[in-house]
Amino acid sequence: MRTFNHVGMVLPEKMEGMIYVEPLKVYITDCTQSPNKIEFLYFEPDSPLPALMQQQAHIAYAVPNIEEAIKDAKLLFGPYDMGHMLLAFVEEEGVAIEFNEFK
User: Fold this and answer.
1) d(CA 103, CA 73)
2) What mean pLDDT value characterizes the chain?
């Protein structure tokens, strides 16, 4: 079962207060601090994340089991261990969908 977690919005430039995720070469905001559950993202030009993720917004869901969530899906990236959660991106309906399994 999926539970809505946040919406990710790509920005053309960094904004104040962003956190740098060095291995993914992306700056992000903390969606838990947004009343609308928005995560803003700015990608470095050499980010290893797929173009679909870098060019448009994504929807993120918390899932109980990331392996089950990505089974038979069009995998774009992951699973990737962020420390406090596993994340993976898949493509559904031409849109990047993020799955988060919190530890």
Assistant:
1) 22
2) 96
